Amino acid sequence: VQSNSTSATADTVTADLSDRLARIVGDKHLITGGVRLRPHLEELRGRYTSACRAVALPADAGEVAAVVQTCAAAGVSIVAQGGNTGAMGGAVARAEQVIVNLARMNRVLEVDPVNYTMRVEAGCILANVQAAAADAGRLFPLSLGAQGSCQIGGNLATNAGGINVLRYGNTRDLVLGVQAVLADGRIWDGMNSLRKNNTGYDLKNLLIGSEGTLGIITAATLKLFPAPKRRVVAVAGVASPDAALDLLGRLRDASSDRLSTFELMANIAVQSAVRHIAGQTDPLAGEHDWYALIVADGTVDGDGDAGAGLRRDMEAGLARALDDGVLRDAVIAESESQARKLILLRENIVEAQNFEGGSIKHDVSVPVAQVPEFIRRVHAAILDAMPAARAYPYGHMGDGNIHFNISQPPGMDKEKFLAQWRPMNRIVHEIAHQLGGSFSAEHGIGLTKLEEMARYKSAVELDLYRQIKRALDPHNLLNPGKVLPAASASR
Amino acid sequence: VQSNSTSATADTVTADLSDRLARIVGDKHLITGGVRLRPHLEELRGRYTSACRAVALPADAGEVAAVVQTCAAAGVSIVAQGGNTGAMGGAVARAEQVIVNLARMNRVLEVDPVNYTMRVEAGCILANVQAAAADAGRLFPLSLGAQGSCQIGGNLATNAGGINVLRYGNTRDLVLGVQAVLADGRIWDGMNSLRKNNTGYDLKNLLIGSEGTLGIITAATLKLFPAPKRRVVAVAGVASPDAALDLLGRLRDASSDRLSTFELMANIAVQSAVRHIAGQTDPLAGEHDWYALIVADGTVDGDGDAGAGLRRDMEAGLARALDDGVLRDAVIAESESQARKLILLRENIVEAQNFEGGSIKHDVSVPVAQVPEFIRRVHAAILDAMPAARAYPYGHMGDGNIHFNISQPPGMDKEKFLAQWRPMNRIVHEIAHQLGGSFSAEHGIGLTKLEEMARYKSAVELDLYRQIKRALDPHNLLNPGKVLPAASASR
To answer: If contacts are CB pairs under 8 Å, which of residues 127-166 in chain B contact chain A?
Structure first.
């Protein structure tokens, strides 16, 4: 009886809160059940069971603020959600929580090609942001697998990485200003569009990467760049990760630092793609222990001499590397279609792994100079732990973010292999940590990496995080339980 | 009697504290009087009277921590000081305070050319940091007037700007990690050297630009870049700031975004340099209303074809701009000595202003696209306020940071003119604010711009600053009274 009565009270609270939220966003834009709820509760890797009181879809920052105020008054905490494509469970909610989804706030507010900036609402799909920039002859460089469905607000909240970090940096480096709703429901307007503005503490970067725990980002001013018009794409065969590292430095020099991609791929990964993916061939004549996919972008257009400089520079750099024994063989794409084919090799490696059975994945980084040592140590440690496991090291060598994935031993039971996820993670994370690396290079913390936060972050650093969280969200209303492994402050 | 007694007590406190501090840093490294005190109390513009109980010169982060703990225990607040070259009074102290100067912590800990990083102690002179990077074939791009005496820790604390922001960003963009001593005397080790590390709140950027009010930066990991080996330097004559803006966009495209400098100079400023500085000539055949100094850097070395690409790209871009009527005339340096001479024009403009009598200076920025409108409005407003004043707009057009300096009317009393500093500032800051600009582009806040902070920052933003300050420095021990216009929290 007691519990029924409590439950009835909770239902009443929910009903009251739902009424108030519906008055803010409109009945149509408050989801409390049915099939429309499902996409908001799905979770990429199927690791968590998500639930919520309601999903509110506000139309503007004012409505977000009103939703936050209303929830705060009811003591109900809030999970901000974008495209719900995160891999770490950052947008997973509990039954008593309200999800605020930014999908309706999807306007590109302004593209200013002269200022090399654009202003967007948080709910814009990343691909639409890229397209709006391209329409104005500019580049917004953030690019990642989920770009067709992830929202720019989620990219900011998680400081997403992606494939252009070598040249353009992470999301953080691409943002000039943000607007956000704070835990008390006030709107902070930090929509700076200046390149130089040295006034006060850096609130923008505090919000970026905080995964909705310090504020809900509602809009942003983004940096744009000249749109690339020519690209030079090459694949090189090298004897070792050390040689690849040497090649990376030489080509940064040779290209006047115009490399946008430098991906390292182990031969086992390349041959797996050749074996499993229709139409994929080895781009080089013989097999090599390691391959590098290299892309350089130039913005000079035109035929003949104009626009040919970058290709000449890259050819000269590769030729010198060949002469000096740094690389064994290389091919430069002669056409855009050949370029696309070379780039596809890297994507096909990801696809091909599915044919090799279960795969334990990692999102780690080390200092770029430590990539060869990292690969050596992890490889040895994995074979030590599971002699028949197959290591597939590949990834963004240019920024130290190697996806050291491990495929199951042939014939082993998949579930039995995947049960080794945590101990394998531990092996890889420990080695990354010893080399000054990170256990989360580009995916963030969410719920998945709370244990690693507690293990690898210093007590001083965790204290600082908690002090900041308490200062900006004293009642722990914004995405509680994410990012910070603070048992004492959970709600 | 009462006041004598209080004074005697204060003296005793000072003596006790000095003893304890001397035991930490060594007698030789605690300055409590005499000529060695003077350089620590001097202030660039002579606006403030600085004083202190003592200047402590710690040898390492451990000693900084011990000094902070000791001062905290005594309830004495601390002013962190680097090269003491700041223009905003950020390193000015009061008689009851202790100055912690980082000059002895001047070791370059490591230069890693393969990782494109270096680790330095906070007291390193900026020029020495640049030189250590260059010795390893790398570029540390931060460059500014005081580089021969400013310390890298001060550059970080103030997020210094300088002349390479267009291409490489502010200090903030050049830092991967920091180590800092917190208000409670603990050391936070955030010496990250990763390009991708998505774990936790961005403490690094919170400390950068906080002017010693949230922590004392004791070391940093800096980003390096390939060293430029070729540069293309040009001066163009254009009809208007609008034409200069058009030229900037065209040359960013034409050079594959390798512009490091794009400086706009009014004819009055160029002709003043020609008139006052020996050897300075107008680089173009006829006078133009506006001039642009343009520098593009490439890292490709060698003669003949290799290395010539950037020059060809720039020539092509300038030729197209001439054909399209965007520029009237241009000269490209044929040699490095001619290049140096063209660059000197910009520096000579600063020098020449001294011959024109008193000058009221500004450190403002606007969105790059608003530079022409900003110049028009400020020019009109200044002539309105003082019809005979001479406006010398020049500066970093590439990042929107125009130094709109005003020279006194010929024959006017200099002191009488300089007495107009505040109302003139107000005119310029108001117009910058209306255009989405900043009242402090690269120099920070210190004491000088507290009034502007109160005037132009929103109540929400000031609240956030204060919440963060209270969270990280609850007893207001670190550089109190700077950055935040918080009368209620002063010490």
So the answer is: 158-159, 161, 165-166
